[in-house]
Amino acid sequence: MKIRITAMLALLLALVLAACGPMPTTPAAQEPAPAAPTEAVAEATVAPPPAAAAAEPAESADGRPIVPAPVAGERPLAALSAAERHERFSGPAETYVKPGVIYLATIVTSKGNIVAELYQDTPESLNNFVTLALNGYYDGLTFHRVEPGFVIQGGDPAGDGTGGPGYTTPAEIIHPHPRGALAWARTSDQVNPERRSSGSQFYITLDKTDFLDGAYTVFGHVIEGMEVADQIAVGDVIERIDISESAVSRLPTPAPTPTPYAPTAQAGRPLAQLPLEEREGIYNTAPELALDADRVYQATIETDKGNIVMELNAEAAPLTVGNFVMLANLGYYDNMPVAHVQADTYLIIGSPAGRPDSDVGYALEIEAAAAMQEVITGTVAMYPVQTSDGSLKASGSQFFISFMAMPQSATPLDIFGVVTEGMDVVQQLAIGDLVNQITIVEK
């Protein structure tokens, strides 16, 4: 991945920052941040019920119709140019899909077919995608965005990420982003705080992308043809999307709930002996440890460019400080490179692979008193993350140091310390510079 996800300071400053570093990007559609899949089973092509006479779809105040109900054997939108499909409708079709029916979507391309099973618990997304596909809306459109190892994105009649049918659909943010997630692109939170989905632009993830969880509507999963998705290039044509029904679900079986595994105190900095790749996700539960708020804890980040001394605020953030002290004493941060630097703004440490989704393996609750602290030059806070249910938490290991004071934000941050010496060193660090170790002193 080529650029870092903008979530942290987008949340912090309530604006989207374009950050250049070895971190993943977010998909785009109409400037959306992004922006589908077998034992033989009985499948039946969906045959829309015949209509005695095709009724005209309802019109909006501006005279544009809603998407029409599909009619058997007809794909009327396929006969229109892509430009004529853009902004054509005022809203999605009325409910057409049948409750309890398992729908499959087959995306037909010259490189092969991609088959996705559509989720039943995202009914508005399901109905919208099925009715557009059966009407031929996607026929002849292209994949306009391809990020190898990240996403492929298509369904835009404008062909550049700015187009759509003329409406958006409500957010149905339920499912995570494994490899093969089929999801709607959307515009950014700045202009779309309700996180409504694009009316037609969809993306398919080419790898597990946890950092998108809780932010986008995933409405299906690829069950066949991921090797085809991996080969898609910009400009490849979606010949058509066929809809069928299946008697049996082919979605993967959910993984069992893992046994809690939290870090515990050990002598000798044992994690420092592990390769960085083995430190990613090494635990799945935060330690139950709150330090004595009456003590003063000082952390020293040792680098080849000098030392950075931080005073930790155990009074405002006892659990966060306890977690940080635990990981530092275990040697988790030893010989770990700086993950990201946003010039004149902040740097991030604590990601073994240099990605937002690469950390110790668990998230922390944001402590109320910590969230009330101001962001000043040298503020130290855990990197904010969104969980699959959309809630905001803090990374268990990634933390950022601010290069400047920042305006008050409605988004809470888990602030747990401040740099007292070495801000000149902080501002000299670059992506890839090593943290030799972080040592803790109690006063």
Contiguous uncertain segments of 5+ residues:
1-56
Q: At the fourth CATH level, what is the homologous superfamily of the largest domain?
A: Cyclophilin-like
Instruction: Please state the structural category.
Output: alpha+beta
**Named CATH architecture of the largest domain:** Beta Barrel
Q: If you average the pLDDT, what whole number results? A: 87
- Tell me the span between the first and last alpha carbons: 42 Å
Helix content: 10-25%
The coarse silhouette is elongated
Q: Number of helical runs?
A: 8
User: Class of the largest domain, according to the CATH hierarchy?
Assistant: Mainly Beta
Radius of gyration computed on alpha carbons: 25 Å
Number of domains: 2
CATH topology heading of the largest domain: Cyclophilin
How many individual β-strands? 25
Q: Report the sheet-strand fraction.
A: 25-35%
